[in-house]
Amino acid sequence: MSDISSLVEARFDPQRHNKYATLMAAGNGYLGIRATHEEGYTTQTRGMFLAGLYHRAGEEEPRELVNLPDVVGMHIEIDGEIVNLLAGKLLSYRRELRFATGELRREAVWESVSGQRYTLLCERFLSRHNNALFCQRISITPHNSECCINIATGIDATQTNAGRQHLDETQVRVFDQQTMQAIYRTRSKDAHVAITCACLVSPRAQVSFSAKNRRLQQHSFCELKPGETLTLDKYCLIERWLDGEVPKEAGQTSLAQLSACMEQGYEALLGASAAVWQAWWRQCRVTVQSATQGDQRALDFALYHLAAMTPVHDERSSIGAKGLTGEGYKGHVFWDTEVFLLPVHLYTQPEIARQLLRYRWLNLAGAHNKAQQNGFAGALFPWESGRTGEEETPAWAAINIRTGLRQKVASALAEHHLVADIAWAVVAYYQATGDDAFMAKEGVELLRETARFWLSRATEVDGALELHDVIGPDEYTEHVNNNAYTNYLACYNVAMARHFSKRFAKPDEAFSSQLDDFLARLRLPQPRPDGVIPQDDTFFSKPTIDLTRYKANAGSQSILLDYSRAEVNEMQILKQADVVMLLYMLPWLYGEPVLRANLAYYEPRTIHDSSLSKAIHGIVAARCHEPEQAYRFWREGCQIDLGDAPHSSDDGIHAAASGAIWLGAVQGFAGVVAMQDELHINPALPKAWTSVAFPCCWRGRKLYLTLTHQQLSVESDGPVMLHVCGKAVEVDGRADFFIPASGSGTSQEGI
Amino acid sequence: MSDISSLVEARFDPQRHNKYATLMAAGNGYLGIRATHEEGYTTQTRGMFLAGLYHRAGEEEPRELVNLPDVVGMHIEIDGEIVNLLAGKLLSYRRELRFATGELRREAVWESVSGQRYTLLCERFLSRHNNALFCQRISITPHNSECCINIATGIDATQTNAGRQHLDETQVRVFDQQTMQAIYRTRSKDAHVAITCACLVSPRAQVSFSAKNRRLQQHSFCELKPGETLTLDKYCLIERWLDGEVPKEAGQTSLAQLSACMEQGYEALLGASAAVWQAWWRQCRVTVQSATQGDQRALDFALYHLAAMTPVHDERSSIGAKGLTGEGYKGHVFWDTEVFLLPVHLYTQPEIARQLLRYRWLNLAGAHNKAQQNGFAGALFPWESGRTGEEETPAWAAINIRTGLRQKVASALAEHHLVADIAWAVVAYYQATGDDAFMAKEGVELLRETARFWLSRATEVDGALELHDVIGPDEYTEHVNNNAYTNYLACYNVAMARHFSKRFAKPDEAFSSQLDDFLARLRLPQPRPDGVIPQDDTFFSKPTIDLTRYKANAGSQSILLDYSRAEVNEMQILKQADVVMLLYMLPWLYGEPVLRANLAYYEPRTIHDSSLSKAIHGIVAARCHEPEQAYRFWREGCQIDLGDAPHSSDDGIHAAASGAIWLGAVQGFAGVVAMQDELHINPALPKAWTSVAFPCCWRGRKLYLTLTHQQLSVESDGPVMLHVCGKAVEVDGRADFFIPASGSGTSQEGI
Hints:
Two copies of one chain form a homodimer.
Chain A: E1 6-9, H1 17-23, E2 26-27, E3 31-33, E4 48-50, E5 54-56, E6 63-65, E7 74-78, E8 81-82, E9 89-98, E10 103-111, E11 117-126, E12 133-142, E13 147-156, E14 167-175, E15 179-186, E16 192-202, E17 206-212, E18 215-224, E19 230-241, H2 250-264, H3 266-284, E20 287-290, H4 295-309, H5 336-348, H6 350-362, H7 364-373, E21 396-399, E22 406-408, H8 411-414, H9 417-433, H10 436-457, E23 459-461, E24 464-466, H11 484-504, H12 509-521, H13 548-551, H14 559-562, H15 565-569, H16 578-585, H17 592-602, H18 613-623, H19 627-642, H20 655-669, E25 672-675, E26 678-681, E27 689-698, E28 701-708, E29 711-724, E30 727-738, E31 747-750
Parallel strand pairs in A: 26-29
Antiparallel strand pairs in A: 1-9, 2-3, 3-4, 5-6, 7-8, 7-13, 9-10, 10-11, 11-12, 12-19, 13-18, 14-15, 15-16, 16-19, 17-18, 20-27, 21-22, 23-24, 25-26, 27-28, 28-29, 29-30, 30-31
Helix pairs in contact in A: 4-20, 5-6, 5-9, 5-20, 6-9, 6-10, 9-10, 9-11, 10-11, 11-12, 11-16, 16-18, 17-18, 18-19, 18-20, 19-20
């Protein structure tokens, strides 16, 4: 594990402050802290977010993930000059996020405006051993002059969500001339946050404290000789009570806890956290040998952020579309979680997949409410969720600045496929784990309540059932009838409800026959003779245009600068391809010819303006035994966050795209795919990859797969049935399989 | 008038960003705009404030002057590099606020990090012709290279008051692909603000608009050849409706108004505003010939800011302790207004003094409420006021960060002298104007209601009346009995109520005899044999300490780093000297020996930690014929904002100290003093001053006084009675008087 990669920022570039603040963010699932610099820059947006801490700043505001008071910022003055790397000369600069340990480390040699040189070293980590603990260390060494250093840092509650503030101070104190503590309450009085922090400075500094304008700060003053180093260690505990009051003794308990941490010291605390990271990497890491620089880093990056964003400590929280790295999408949870993130957990830490489904199950009441309010039965999960299960999608989209009118957000009203996506994930979880207890309680209820929604959602036309006025994943095509993705997934949802009800639910004849009737009558768009499945009833009737120029700017929605949304809706223009997505989700539906036909038809019509698009195209291409095409898509998918675009990650990481990096490697190139309750492995490694190896959980077994172009090695901690290149094999212990060039056969070499 | 001075900032210093943002703030009494730079710096706090627009961000928050959405900021990129004067090289820099016209002009030659040179010229003014109009012009000229320039600017509603946001967006639009308009409502829904703005760019630029995260912006893109200049003119209208709804047609009206402004163009609009400034300077300016550089500038600075802070358009607004230049003191109005600012207006534009008193009169209901709530009768004006007349003093002071306990703010509960200060100002206004109509309606009511308060405030002790548990202006001595300042001023208040009631109020025997009784029995601390008047009953019994080191840091409250407030209270330590202040306020009470005795006794015990302190000491010293001592105090008073301290003006100008610069020149050195209904002139010019000249209004006459060490010249637009160096003279037209060296005599030379 010593070769786990790092993300390096080699240049100090204000245009990329927010990009790297996102990419290098610290996270442990409980807390996320953007990697903003200690010293202030207007080009960086600070951010600290607690999983599940949402608040509505006003009646007409959407509920959003609260951007907490800042603890990262430090105002540093050397001989009266404010340290700012834009000023003076930056003689060297390097910042590195070590994925292996979660350490962020920045080293700079800076010449001040007055011509003095200093080495600045800034280190920090968010503990995975003690979720609430965040530690920073800053060291300053003057090269050739004596100097006086002032550092002011503490807790800055002027932080807002783009101007909106959610917290009131209820207590601000300094204990024993050392420890600062501030307790905050959301303005609705529902939740509380306590931040306790202290700074230790060496050599001994003059210290004072101030509390003004919502900033509680320690001011440290120190004189240094040339070559001498000032070190300031800052220890913070960030705690929250999401429902109700702060226990009376909480403040005192935090002081004691922080004091215990400080006794251990920075290095020991880092060691304890790093040990948790190490164990986790052993459980999850994908190792690749690639001719292309950056592939391993992309995989490490993706898994680092998966760990950072996943609230394993709290089943009432799920994963927002930006994780805990920014204010984007208000921290809300979308279908991305079940379809792009849950599968990663399912094959590495299946208990987390279960927990993510528990989150939905615990929020069934909200889904029932939403269904009822919209005139449907069963469970209609909210398009965007926070912690309560209520629909959190802003009622109104951004104002059309030309007309001055606001547009209703249609997704919450018509993008109903997420109901079936959740059901899909329930089944995927069960198939991969055989967790009867879950299926008997949460699973079957989720399947039946979501199925009940679809029964009520259908419209009868000439005796058949149709799903009208929906939006599929492709949001450039709105309000259509019989969207292929939605209809097939709804069908699957209902079929699985019927299937699992037989074993796990009390018999209910009436409901069963309703399910049967739905399945018998639901219209499923069929492939044309050339294999192409219509995306919806009217799709083929729409004109096409040349999309080359928009595809070149994929992700930027540049088409909307030339055409209105209404105009785009009336052409064969896709943000992402629904049918390709459908074929990815239900791989047993159609064979390779249909996959090829639809990939060939839809890809030229797809701009890939959604960050969910390319990775799925890549996996489907791999399943068509087109590994080079798949690899191109995968590489491009990796660039969504890791590419050069300076601002596309400003408001947070693309969580789903991170998941998709893993999906592409494991489900795409390694070809690991659950075909109902069979685990198939149909590799299609790109030329650039010599090998790929990764752990994989399946039905209670822990497997470790190592794949080259010629061979698959499997290690299993017990007997397990696999389907390698189409042939059923049982593995117990270690087995190597020869991979034929065509990918169409296999021969077992030994066990 | 061509020699009206400028304030120049010769060096770009981030440590002084907020100082100069305050000192160079634009203001027209309606609106104040901090002089922050167009480009962003973390070291500057943006601020735009509308007189009278206060709002409470939450139930437990104090009401504060709302910091409005920002219009000043511009994000400028040249060839992809963000313009930031800290980066690259600043080859020249100069910023100048022209007091004559209110123009702010910044010129810089900047070499970018990539080595290209540019001249940047930024100009702006807030119109005095059209209060709502703010204009900016930015010009960029590349010296030696082609370049691409992007400028993003518009309306940024992420602005907060130290993290607190007061406004909700109700409408955000772009009209005709040119004009941005945003309408905001205070969260309490009481008041509305509309900001309408447009940018004109030459040469022709590519323009687009965005509205995201509470920022409405125009993005302008332009390519320049070397030597070619990009000019962006930004025109903004900032309007408000302080009570109730925005009229339906308001948005359209603003568009039409802005359009009309843009047709006139930047230069013409500046001309119209400058003309108003010019006329105003003729009415108010003090011209000095001084050997000390900066004296004229200090006077121009003071008057500029007096114009900038005074809401002549709205009698429901008064002047906050920081004017409209910052968030300090939450924008609240204190006794500073009546005592330090109103007199300036009284002698230059007496109708404004009348209006400021009307503000108090209109808020009598609040003063009655406060009296009642505190168990008193009559009018107890709030210690801090906003627009409604309610007490706005925060209930709790800053948390004691050592104990964690909050302290009650005592001023609102015991600093009652402001009641008498308001009465004092009413009488001063009447004496200077003879405005019977005002006295008959507002004046006498204010006098009687404030007097009624004092009647109820007194405590009977051995047959005498005493005022117990008060705080005088000296806030380092709290909760004392018979504070000399308070008792004498209360006595004056009641005496004037009695005096003016005779002529202006309906006879009320009972009330009259109550007033008589109060005056007969009120204890007035008498001078000791050496002439020193005790500040309060226990003052002389307290110990003294050496204050040299604290006096050296006057204004910083450094004493509180060594002693607690409670300890300071038990020593003869003054923030400002109450008895000196008393002798300033009621100059007819005691002769020069008593003045000298008290100045000599109290000054060594006074740290001058209040910005109100030095100027008053200076005036009293001048009245003692100690012009050099007076001049030292005056010079030091000028340094409160104009001195070197980098941060003391960060949160706004010291409004009272600005007023005191004028007071020192006119009431101190020129010795103009209203002794009841006589205008006395007893000059005491310092050696450094060759002459001082200023307009002066008295009893309906406009005088212009020119003073040298030897001579006083008076011009009057009609017959007026003056007392020059103790001798009564009548002037009509022009008269010159010889000033004897001792200042004790006079001889008229001719009329």
